TrEMBL record:
One of its GO terms (molecular function) is phosphotransferase activity, for other substituted phosphate groups. It holds the Pfam family Bac_transf. Residues 4-147 form the Bacterial sugar transferase domain. InterPro entries: Bact_transf. Belongs to the bacterial sugar transferase family. This is Undecaprenyl-phosphate glycosyl-1-phosphate transferase. The keyword Plastid does not apply. The keyword rRNA-binding does not apply. Keywords: Transferase.
Length: 169
């Protein structure tokens, strides 16, 4: 089975101050549905070629267009799903005080192998501490981790577990 077309996946994501923008990626999953018309779980829709694209982070390359358009930076908290906005605590929502990034502090500190709470703590730390030197460090480490294919998936999950709004911060 092939992934299908169009080859680009686009989706609204929250940017700076939570303002929506359309993110672009290479498609890594099918759009298959069950007999009732419900989309199948990620594990069933992520095909070997899609896994390869994600493992090498090639699926993220179209986000460079988002950087050129000014919606994203090279470095910043990763843009998550729109429905998460209402689930954030005020502290977690601070991640939107800077532009989202193609890569970020949380990505080099564990990517999808860390909990949502850890990810948000790292994002807020970045918001409070970012500067050119830190961004350069993150970019260089991202290159290394992509080559090593490190921390790509969460345990027992094809992608990352959904954030349900655990408000522990």
């Amino acid at each position: 089975m092939k992934i299908g077309s169009p080859i680009f996946f686009k989706q609204q994501r929250p940017g700076l101050n939570g303002k929506p923008f359309c993110i672009y990626k290479f498609r890594t999953m099918t759009t298959e549905k069950d007999k009732k018309g419900n989309i199948l779980p990620d594990e069933k829709r992520l095909l070997p070629f899609g896994k390869f694209l994600r493992a090498t982070s090639i699926d993220e390359l179209p986000e460079l267009f988002n950087v050129l358009m000014g919606h994203m930076s090279m470095v910043g908290p990763r843009p998550l799903l729109m429905q998460y906005l209402e689930r954030y605590t005020p502290t977690q929502a601070r991640r939107h005080e800077v532009k989202p990034g193609v890569t970020g502090w949380a990505q080099i500190k564990g990517r999808n192998s860390i909990s949502w709470e850890e990810k948000f703590d790292l994002d807020v730390w970045y918001v409070d501490n970012h500067d050119f030197k830190l961004d350069l460090k993150i970019l260089l480490l991202t290159c290394w981790y992509v080559l090593c294919r490190r921390d790509i998936n969460a345990d027992n999950c094809a992608t990352m577990h959904e954030f349900n709004g655990e408000k522990t911060i």
